[in-house]
Each structure stands twice: as structure tokens, then as C-alpha cells.
Amino acid sequence: MLAILFLIIFTIITRIIPHPPNFTPLIAVALFSGVYFKKRFSFLIPLSIYVISDLILGVSDVSLFCWITIVFIYSLGTSSILFFLITNFGVWLMGWYPQNWQGLIQCYIAALPFFRNTLISAILYTAVLFGGYEFLLKFKTQPEPSK
After folding, report:
1. Which residue segment(s) compose the domain that 87 sits in?
2. What is the pTM for the complete model shown?
């Protein structure tokens, strides 16, 4: 339980402190939670991180799309591409771009630099979380050397 609390607090902090756009461990935490925390309400781990940090940073009309996507990532094991498609569709749907095909394409093109950071951070943080966890498990379960 302490490890989960640390993970939540750490991830909230990484969203609040200055960082490159969309470069946080949130997607990796959603994937990690979906794999290692199989309890009924464990989807609340990544969702609570997103909601709490958004409450601190500011909630927008697109936040709901982000929150729904993070639950999909948790439950389906999908990640950056799904996040890119759904959240930017939400940006377009909320009227930030013209409500036609050209506006939708323009929205996705404008989001490509953010997608790059989302993809890189998801790969990096997923490797750190999964690799670190498996290393700790292996380290913890190794028998003590005999004397």
C-alpha cells in the first residue's frame, strides 16, 4: 500500500513540476497498474493521479477525454496511440478547431510534437517501472548465499 501511495504522489509531482509537454510517467503508471494491481478498483490509481493533478493544474473541457483514455489504457493495455487519438479528437470536438475534416486533420497535425513526447515518455517510464519492479522482485526472492 505504501508503494502505491508513493507511486501516486511521485506521478502527481511529475505532472506538476516543469517538464517537456506530455513527458510524464502517467501512461506507464496506467499500464503498470493494469498489469500488477489486479484488484477491483485499481483503475483508480492512474485515474486519481490524473484527476488530482488536473485539479491542481486546472481542469479544461478536454480533461474528461483524458481521464476516460487513461482508464482505457489501464484496462486494455493500450497506450500512446490511443491517448493521442482520443484526446485530440476531444480537442477538435470541443471546438478548438473548425468542425470539419480539415479541422480534424489540422488538430492531429498540430498535436504531433506532443505525441512524440508522449510516446518517448511512455516507453522510457514503462521500461523503468516494469524493469525496476521485476529487478526488485528478483532481488527480493533470491536466496541468501550459503556460508
Report:
1. 23-127
2. 0.73
